[in-house]
Write a structure and sequence with these properties.
single chain; 193 residues; mainly beta; four-stranded antiparallel β-sheet; 0% helix; 50% strand; globular
Amino acid sequence: MGSVTSAGWSGWRSRTIEIPGAGAGQPVLLEFRAGFTTSFNLSTVRKGAYRQRAHDTLVTIDRPGPSHIVLPADCNALVISRVRVGNEGASGLGRWKVRIVDSDALPPLPSETIRGKGTRTFAYASPKPYFEYAPVVHYDFIDSPGTIIYTPANGGKRLIRFTSAVNQTGTLRLPQHGYLTLSEHGKWRISVT
């Protein structure tokens, strides 16, 4: 397992968390743990004249256990919102936990085809055989549409692809080192060439 810094938060209710060191030009890696039968929407907050200038949904997590996510370089806070189901109130009763982790806590981008479920983040930081080399990720959201997010490690602009029922498969080129997040409620499959 990778190394972990000491910053961590937990709670039961929805909350906005200021992440120390975030918004300084580098993405921040986080590990989020949700309780059983509980779903959470995680959104970003950008620096600006107003504290909550923009709320962009980052991922939805609906499974227990750890999920690694990447807070973009221009964001300084994370909003954790418990998913509500109709008039019933919040889904589940589980507690959530968030902590900052180092890049070695993430699994590397796989060299062969793998399958998974839910939200998962991979790190891409392998040596390039030549300068122009950029691996291509082939993705397939098997059960339902999902989202694939590429975040450069140097804090450049993120690339987000939202899929639909018509285009659940595709490719994504990774021009530089960074992080690849797959977010979907069902199953997905990726391979790298």
